[in-house]
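REQUEST ID: PR-0412
SUBMITTED BY: lab tech R.K.
PRIORITY: routine
TASK: structure prediction, single protein chain
INPUT:
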Amino acid sequence: MGKVIVTMRALAKIQMLGGEKMPNYVDEAFSEDNLLSYSGACLSLAIDVPEKVVRKSLDTLVIPSRGAVPFFLGMTYALDKLRGPMGAEYADFYDNLGVQPMLTPLLPENSRVANSVNGRKYKVLMIPFTADLNLEKFDENEDAAEYTSKTRNYWANVTAAFFKGRNERKRDPYFRTFADVVLKQIEGRDVAAEVYESFPPIKRFCTIDTVISGRASNEILRSFDILAQEHGNEHMMPHAFLVVDKNGDKLRKNLGFYEYLRMKENIGQVNMFPIANILSEDKGASLLGVSAVVYPSVMRASKKLEYNGQEFFVGAGSWFLGSELGEVKEEHGETFSRFKRFMDVVYRGIDAKFVDNFGGDYERAKQVFNEAREGFLEEAHATRIFCLNAPNVPELNLNFADAVRGSYDTHSQVVHVPFNDSATRQITDTICNIPGVHSQKRKSRRSFS
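STATUS: complete
OUTPUT:
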């Protein structure tokens, strides 16, 4: 088995209005009001999350989407500022918060958040629920909506595996397909897999996520509802902190998404934070700090697998963080630094919102914010941040030499990497070696000891 470097250019057509209108659109998207609303959501999260975590005895915060990453980072920045005015409970939460090492390079400068979850009272777990899929481009006979729903359900099952002890977790088929197959066999990221293998068991958890139409949050939370019932463990239903785009105007009421989230809110399982514009949503690593990759040929092949008498769909995918992009190639380092500059504007907005709420020189704080905003806008115009020359998604140093066939990106820069039939069979054979998993056509397979 060899190595192949797969280079994929971002083909994003992200809200492009044409060359002449581009500067006006950038100014509108990153307006003072939009950015201050964005920063305000980070401050609101910092105020609400510790209170709910302590009151509900939660120990793990799950980040299920790339869109949630900037809000989590902004929350940690705001938490450091709240230590004084909000009291000991907030200082304790911040001082006892730990993240997986892969997230550490994205944290605010001078952050005191621990770069390990071991021994921490409050732990952050990143689960790549990314389900922005274009399966029709890979196979016109496949239905992307079906794959999207099944992918989110798959990742809910992977998350549920973290309620198990470490040794039992390593035998869980959902966890093994993520750690052993995706991270190790496909991507050769053994260290990342070990981080997930050693993650302390979850007792009770919450999530931070973004909401546009409400479909994703509905599908994810409903999957956890079902898992809680199946496992007889109500703690598998998370408390969800949801940042809602366009002040909720885009929530789909005709499909019941709004009603479900309001029901969850009424029973105390959801907090919603409406903001003017989630301007970083679906913009790739330059505004999210994280790139996503999925493997559609593995997804399609898994539809022929079974576990416990049911289809064993594998939502094969993973995330590469901005710091990892910077290690691959200089231009990806530029993407990472652009993300850092975007977050600096968000942090200066948090400073202004904090002063506005808790006292201080608001005019000075707002001036500093606007100076940071103007500097970012200059760069956004120069790099045409939403156009076809947006930052590249990462080069992936994948196993299976010469096995990649026709890779492509979606509008939100999710990289799709199909493998040829031979490599796909090799991967699915590994999945079938997981005890209890078998092909629908061949029920007997030898398993690993």
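NOTES: The CA atoms of residues 258 and 277 lie 18 Å apart.
REVIEWED BY: pending
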